[in-house]
């Protein structure tokens, strides 16, 4: 099939794009990376009257650090994150996760912000955003507003964004020294959506876990933050927390709300999630411990 007829307009500024969205409302769609949108157009799952192309909007390009946050413009591509974009564990985490996103041609065009706007339950970036308490910046007819990732996802392909608003940036808190990061995913083929995935960040101070952040992808209709699992790690000794890691994996599986699929029952999906949470936590604890034991530059 081919897309149904639609009008096309390339916006040159955020204000112009917002004006077009305000005028056309739900009849308009935003084209940034387009790696999901174009497929839906092709199969006529969506039939917009207008496509608003924002690829020429310079305000949406690039990344930087502001007030303790890594700020990703809405046109930052998946491939841009395959190498750390900031000297902080959050940069390492993004670089670790990026290769799991689809195939290289898709990573070359698709965007981080677009993944959050599309809100697929299996999307890796959505789980990262929830785990790290990201903030999504939007511009609309009434001006700018910011939505916490915990409030952003309303269901599969449903977010807090209104039809008149444009996602302009995503803000990820810097994690700081002493933070370990981990990510684990299971999928049937290299380019498949995640059957399940887990992302973890662990802050370590004086040999103990000061805090932990854990989120799971494809564990429910929205990314699932495993808060009970996080509490199971808090205060544990990094040197001897295997039991706490196992407890956290089991707790995360209970917090998940997976749906049955042709390749896995609910029980099996919970088992996989528990395994992935444990793997991601062991990675995170290992990378945090390595920072403590790493010799100073120029010695050893």
From TrEMBL:
Highest taxon in the source lineage: Bacteria
Domain FAD-binding PCMH-type: 1-177
Segment forming the signal sequence: none
Pfam families in the record: CO_deh_flav_C, FAD_binding_5
Alphabetical UniProt keywords: FAD, Flavoprotein, Oxidoreductase
Molecular function GO labels: FAD binding; oxidoreductase activity
Family matches, as SMART domains: CO_deh_flav_C (SM01092)
Classification via InterPro entries: CO_DH_flav_C (IPR005107), CO_DH_flav_C_dom_sf (IPR036683), Diverse_Substr_Oxidored (IPR051312), FAD-bd_PCMH (IPR016166), FAD-bd_PCMH-like_sf (IPR036318), FAD-bd_PCMH_sub1 (IPR016167), FAD-bd_PCMH_sub2 (IPR016169), Mopterin_DH_FAD-bd (IPR002346)
UniProt protein name: Carbon-monoxide dehydrogenase medium subunit
Top-level taxonomy: Bacteria, Bacillati, Actinomycetota, Actinomycetes, Streptosporangiales
